[in-house]
Design brief:
Strand content: over 45%
Order of helices and strands: HEEEEEEEEEEEEEEEEEEEEEEEE
Structural class: mainly beta
Largest sheet: 4 strands, antiparallel
Number of helices: 1
Strand order of the largest sheet: 1-3-6-5
């Protein structure tokens, strides 16, 4: 028999090869975004500037959500300066600009398509306020950790009303009046931005509250046990937990569990020693850990 020859156009072959390479060469996205912008937020008037710095990656590219509201000194590199060209209407008082930085991670050297393995992004919120604004919040920016508090005072209006973008992250002592105090009620695993809004009879303005991670918190921080007693330990600020103990006398005690956010340490009867012995209880979550000092008292 005679084998038939099938002619395939060259551009079809190249397209198929290119498509296969594109799919086969692409790697999975990173499970964790390490790219950050500092500062995360800022308040500016028309013609004001703010310098932004990116970290956690490389090959940075900057872009604006509202390009007509301002300019960037450069769209490449780890640093750029944003200049406001926008003055919101007095009735609007303020408007939010989002500045995004994209970082290409693990760029393929010598690749045929020139694309990165994957890209990570971060955003900064720039609040444009009208030059005619007379309503202000002091302080305009604040940082808190779990259970930390900060007080805010608004001026320039007659009636004030306060609200939170994320009410589950903290509490306000007052939702009306010119003063309120914000208290954080959670310990984030990384930095989180809360926006406090003050609505008045002369417009609306905001303050930015950055929740900083405080690491693993272990309660109680110390314990003293006699024979037959136990103590419950509680950890927070992490995800998964692992419990351990080291030091003289720890072998005379036992955990109810070595995983989870809570465990009970028991010191049973029949220790057969006199005096006191001390050891350390440690809870670990990822690379973070916290310790508690435990003392047990024998009755021999």
């Amino acid at each position: 028999s005679v084998m038939k020859r099938i002619a395939i156009p060259l551009f079809v072959v190249l397209a198929l090869i290119g498509g296969l390479c594109f799919v086969g060469c692409e790697t999975e996205s990173a499970s964790q975004n390490n790219v950050l912008i500092s500062p995360r937020s800022a308040i500016i008037l028309i013609d004001n500037t703010v310098e932004l710095t990116a970290s956690g990656g490389f090959d940075y590219e900057w872009s604006l959500e509202q390009e007509e509201w301002g300019t960037l000194s450069t769209t490449k590199g780890s640093r750029t300066v944003y200049t406001s060209a926008h003055d919101p209407d007095p009735e609007t008082w303020q408007e939010h600009q989002v500045i995004t930085v994209k970082s290409y991670i693990n760029r393929q050297a010598g690749g045929t398509n020139g694309f990165s393995d994957y890209a990570q992004t971060a955003e900064a919120i720039i609040t444009h306020q009208t030059a005619q604004v007379i309503v202000n919040i002091e302080p305009p920016n604040a940082n808190v950790t779990e259970f930390g508090s900060v007080s805010f005072t608004a001026t320039g209006a007659n009636r004030y009303s306060w609200s939170l973008q994320y009410p589950s992250w903290g509490t306000l002592t007052a939702t009306d009046g010119d003063t309120t105090t914000y208290t954080s009620t959670f310990n984030p695993s990384d930095e989180h931005l809360q926006i406090l809004t003050c609505t008045t009879d002369r417009g609306t303005t905001t303050a930015h509250i950055v929740h900083n991670a405080e690491g693993i918190i272990l309660n109680p921080s110390s314990a003293s046990l006699n024979e037959g007693e136990s103590v419950k330990f509680t950890a927070s600020g992490g995800t998964t937990y692992s419990w351990s103990k080291t030091g003289t006398g720890n072998e005379l005690t036992s955990f109810s569990t070595t995983t989870g956010s809570e465990t009970t340490l028991s010191f049973p009867d029949g220790s057969s020693f006199s005096g006191s012995r001390s050891f350390t209880v440690t809870v670990t979550s990822g690379e973070e850990s916290a310790q508690s000092s435990v003392t047990i008292h024998g009755t021999l």
